[in-house]
Amino acid sequence: MSVKDQVIAIIAEQALLEPQDVTLDSTLESLGIDSMGVVESIFAIEEAFDITVPFNANAPQESDFDITSVATIIAGIERLRAQQATG
Amino acid sequence: MKRVVITGAGTINPLGHSVADTFAAMREGVCGIGPLDIRDVDRLQIQIGGQVKGFEAEGRYNRQQISLYDRFTQFTLAAAREAIEQSGLIFEGELAARSGVVLGTAGGGVSTWDDNYRAVYEEGKNRVHPFVVPKLMNNAAASHVSMEWNLKGPSFTVSTACASSNHAMAQAFMMIRSGMAPAMVTGGSESMLCFGGVKAWEGLRVMSKDACRPFSANRNGMVQGEGAGIFVFEEYEHARARGAEILCEVAGFAMSSDASDIVMPSKNGAARAMAGALKDAGLNASDVGYINAHGTGTAANDKTECAAVADVFGPHADNLMISSTKSMHGHLIGGTGAVELLACIMALRDGVIAPTIGYEEPDPECALDVVPNEARDAKVDVALSNAFAFGGMNAVIALRKT
Question: Which residues contact B204 (CB under 8 A, 6 or more apart)?
Fold first, then answer.
């Protein structure tokens, strides 16, 4: 499964939706994922990709991981995988 | 209804090993938060906390006691000794039979769980020490206080996460006010600065990696602490008859439940607890000079708490002072309300308001007088101590100068 498909599967499960209802442009808010859902989604992403996501729920906009949309989350994961693969 | 006063106070916390040391540190705006010195700290994302330093069980307790006293019990016993000795009470006869211990803790013997899980899971051992259960149980601290000082009346432990101490002290207050008990030992303790205890909090993503900055616009989360605060609550006439020194009066309290969310705070629930405490104490909002805030330094708590204060106090919200001493000692979770009650006592008795340190940037959503960075001299007649727990369970205590 591609990164995109995996992320969509994780987010769809959190939002109680079918994967086809989640698009690259979807925002977590538009999918009805609240702050606890965001934290759980990030945990699931860390587990799935074996990465550590820098994310502080107090200041999501300042975290070095953009959760604006499904597309930005995928981009963030790919960047972290590249960074953390060697580490 | 009987009146209730405080005739003894004791503490162990990141700011000091006694009430006097803690007051001195609060006056100076000392920060007790620093790098954590615990096993496997390198595997933690969050590596700071308000740790109690220089407190070794060895030398303080004997080998048999150490096998029974988790660190949260050790803190409790040390703080209880200071409080009970200050009160001058000797529990014997009828006084012993009717006086008890009600303490708060969220996690109880967390380090004992942690150490023994390590032994069986990580090290593969198939045997643990025989006293693991009596050491880790949440009521262990209250039980050891009852045994040490012969307290044979109503005794139990209250666990409501970050409001545990305030709920516990509220129970002790009610028992004395109703005439059920002449005196009660009360307060709370917490010690979860171990790998598992910090790792669990880390998971929530609400912890700061650098500092606890309540009410500051650039705040980025809470910081854990550890320690205990223990008090002797006593019926007023009982204290007066024996010429005891009275630290202040416990004027009233209120509890409320948000009944809404397991972690997000509610303005309405917090406001109902503060308004309820004033009503219970027979006070007007304008009587309050100082509020020791719950003030965790999270985005959600601080703005919600300030909005609740504005709702309850109206224009007087701009006249009162509100500070969060968690900026100095961290969040002592189930023990936090007890240590924070000390800041209220200092305000009433010494006329010194403990500051909110680490305050860097005003936040329009927290536009109150948060006593930034430096302690302030002020005459205060009434103080409130707020505690708003995960699970939406709130407890606010009102103290009055005597």
Answer: A39, A57, B263
The reply to whether B194 belongs to the active site is: no
**Contact (CB<8Å) B220/A35:** no
- Per CB-CB distance under 8 Å, the chain A contacts of B207 are 56
Which domains are present in chain B?
Answer: 4-241 (3.40.47.10), 252-400 (3.40.47.10)
Tens digit of each residue's pLDDT (9 = 90 or more) over B35-59: 999 999 999 999 999 999 999 999 9
Q: How far apart are CA B372 and CA A78, in angstroms?
A: 42
* Chain mean pLDDT for chain B: 98
Rounded to two decimals, what is the model's pTM? 0.95
**Does the annotation count B248 as an active-site position?**
no
Cβ <8 Å between B205 and A36: no
The C-alpha atoms of residue A72 and residue A82 are separated, in whole angstroms, by: 15
A20 in reach of chain B (CB within 8 A): no
Residues B148, B142, B39: CA angle, nearest 5 degrees: 100
B306 carries an active-site annotation: no
Cα B227 versus chain centre, distance: 9
Geometric angle at alpha carbon B268, from A63 and B339, rounded to 5°? 70
The superfamily CATH assigns to domain A3-85 is ACP-like (1.10.1200.10)
Flag whether residue A71 sits within 8 Å of chain B, measured between CB atoms. Answer: no
* pLDDT band per the 50, 70, 90 thresholds, residue B172: very high
